Amino acid sequence: MKQSRFAWIVPAIYILFLLTPIYWLVAMSFKTNVEITTRFTLLPETFNFDNYIKVFTDQKWRDVFANSIIYVGLNTIISVAVALPAAYAFSRYKFFGDKHLFFWLLTNRMAPAAVFTLPFFQLYSAFGLFDTHIAVALAHCLFNVPLAVWILEGFMSGVPREIDETAYIDGHSFPSFFVKIFMPLIASGIGVAAFFCFMFSWVEYLIADSLARSTVMPITTRLQALSQASGTDWGVLAAAGTLTLIPGAIVIWFVRNYIAKGFALGRV
Amino acid sequence: MKPVNQRAWFLVAPVLLLVAFTAIIPLMTVVNYSVQYVGMNTQFHWVGDLWFREVLASEKFWNALWRNLVFSGIILMIQIPLGVLIALNMPRKGWGVPVCLVVMALPLLIPWYVVGMIWQMFGRVDIGLFGVMLRDFGYNYENDPIDAWFTLVLMDTWHWTSLVALLAYAGLVSIPDAYYQAARIDGASRWQVFRHIQLPKMARVLTIAVLLRFMDSFMIFTEPFAVIAGGDPVFLSTELKQTVELGQKAAMSLIYFLIILLMSWVFYTVMTRDDGEPRQRGGAS
User: Fold this and answer.
1) How far apart are the C-alpha atoms of B73 and B236, rounded to whole Å?
2) Closest chain A residue to B29, measured at CA
3) Residue-wise pLDDT tens digits, B139-151
4) Does residue B28 lie in a domain region?
5) What is the CA radius of gyration of chain B?
6) N or C end: fewer C-beta atoms under 10 angstroms in chain A?
7) What number is the average pLDDT over the span A213-223?
8) Cβ(A57)–Cβ(B155) under 8 Å?
9) CB A92 within 8 A of CB A222
10) Nearest CA-CA distance, residue A55 and chain B, Å
């Protein structure tokens, strides 16, 4: 379909709308607090990196960044590892209760986090896991495991079943077939599933905040504590906020063609 | 047809165990709380459906539910047409494609709390670009509930319209050129092409977009919390967070969860409607 010559104006305006608040955050991170609170300047008067230096030299900021990265990484590994065999089962076989199980997984992806924060505290305390990285990583499996299963199932169903059968005839056992032949075939699917697990664990706030309160505090909890206190240090908050955009901006390039597929749980 | 194989259960077992730990046990705990009164020294007393009746009779609950539905309604009415409009006008080839995809996806990867923080910094009348520009028109989201609503809707549009646009775009690029050629031969107008070729082909992805946007906006908590810190408007999840009484909180959680369960069922039916039919999967969408 030929688009009109001026079609580009619509996405251009939209992108401008998307970038304006982000620009303001980044601009703020280069300003001094005096400039932020007393003068209204579209461009920072001088580009000073003091706010970033403050963030990078403060052990507390470094810790909260590391905490977030650790539980997000753990969650991604756990989610994809357990989802791989399950997705294979759903894509290749019929078994008792498969449809119900698949639906039940989805309900967990859709469950509001606010419902689970109440019992999570008791549950993880009972196992002595409260305020640990692994607690947040496990709790985020609530929505990331179903997501990974659905996405991987979508990709696996695109691989013809004849490949499995040929491999078994050639004398491959299931584990050797799965690791040596099947996983390379769905490598892009594994990448996309890992990306989405990473992403949803990274953006989540409520559960992480309720399970990791002090020693493994996530970055967003610290931002929250500082942004709603009196005498807010806006410059440092803006600098730390800007830094949280970077992981997403980096990985997005690799999955740009799969973003829609991932959000549609592998079914576009 | 897929072969029947009960041993497939072994492959599903790890997921089952993990999700049982993260979902079933907590949910059972909630059920347990919802029918009991937890007194001093955590003594439990059976109270039956008292908490449920209390929640369902509470005006605050219905107000929050109502606000949530209105919010989701507004969100859908803005984001779905806007997303489709953007997708229709997005470039199909050349350098514009990756630029559009990457920049549009950017808001989707920002931690939700930071999204709220960005809009707080953007909208405040003392330090925000947006707030300062509108200050003279009497805009102040911290004092005026209407302005708060406006800010939250604008923020959510900023945060999530890209999702609709990207899904609709994925639907559009999957339309073979032959369809358009046939339409040209028939002398179809732009509107007819949209109405009879593009819209039907996007129907499935758009249904997914509507359901995803409805559910996520229905559960919204973090972003408004960051912007207005629990002030007006109070949504269901905020109400839930602010409820102190354990039993009441649990009962409200269950009612909330049942609503979501119902919607998940609709979602599932849509998602798996044409499973089993041959369809292009596995490649770039």
Assistant:
1) 15
2) A119
3) 888 888 888 999 9
4) no
5) 23
6) N
7) 89
8) no
9) no
10) 16
A vs B, Cβ pairs < 8 A, gives: 313
CA–CA separation, A174 vs A246, rounded Å?
40
Considering CB atoms only, which of B109, B129, B229 is closest to A199?
A: B109
Best probe of the B interface among A5, A41, A118, by most B CBs < 10 A, is A118
Domain co-membership, A86 together with A204? yes
- Per DSSP bridges, beta strands B36-38 and B44-46 are antiparallel
Chain B residues whose beta carbon lies within 8 Å of the beta carbon of residue A21: 118-119, 122, 129-130, 158
User: Which of A18, A129, A251 is the best substitution to test chain B (most B C-beta atoms within 10 A)?
Assistant: A18
Residue B58: half-sphere exposure toward Cβ, Cα within 13 Å: 19
**pLDDT range class, residue A152, cuts 50, 70, 90:** very high
Closest Cα of chain A to B55: distance in Å? Answer: 15
Judgement on whether residues A116 and A39 belong to the same structural domain of the protein: no
Residues A220, A173 share a domain: yes
Q: Is A268 within the bounds of a domain? A: no
Rounded to whole angstroms, how far apart are CA atoms A157 and A141?
23
Q: Is residue B18 part of a domain?
A: no
Same domain, A33 and A103: no
**Residue B185 is which amino acid?**
I
Number of H helices, E strands in chain B: 14, 2
Mean pLDDT of the region B52-77: 91
Residue of chain B with shortest Cα separation from A94 = B4
Residue A96, in any domain of the structure: yes
Q: Is residue A53 part of a domain?
A: no
pLDDT tens by residue, A52-92: 999 999 999 999 999 999 999 999 999 999 999 999 999 99
Residue B81, in any domain of the structure: yes
A153: domain CATH number? 1.10.3720.10
Mean pLDDT (chain B, rounded): 86
Q: Which of B4, B6, B7, B15 to mutate to test the interface with A (most CBs of A within 10 A)?
A: B15
Is A112 an 8 Å CB contact of chain B?
yes
Cross-chain CB nearest to B114 (options A117, A244, A251): A244
Q: Is residue A205 part of a domain?
A: yes
User: Does a cis peptide bond (omega within 30 degrees of 0) precede residue B233?
Assistant: yes
List the domain range (segments joined by +) for residue A28. Answer: 1-48
Q: Which domain holds residue B94?
A: 51-271
Residue B182, classed as helix, strand or coil, is: helix
Domain with B256 in it: what CATH number?
A: 1.10.3720.10
Question: In total, how many domains does chain A have?
Answer: 2
Residues 64-103 of A with CB under 8 A from B: 78, 82-83, 85-86, 88-90, 92-96, 98, 101-103
- Min Cα distance B173 → chain A (Å) is 10
Mean pLDDT of chain A: 89
The total number of structural domains in chain B stands at: 1
Specify whether A99 is located in the same domain as A3. Answer: no
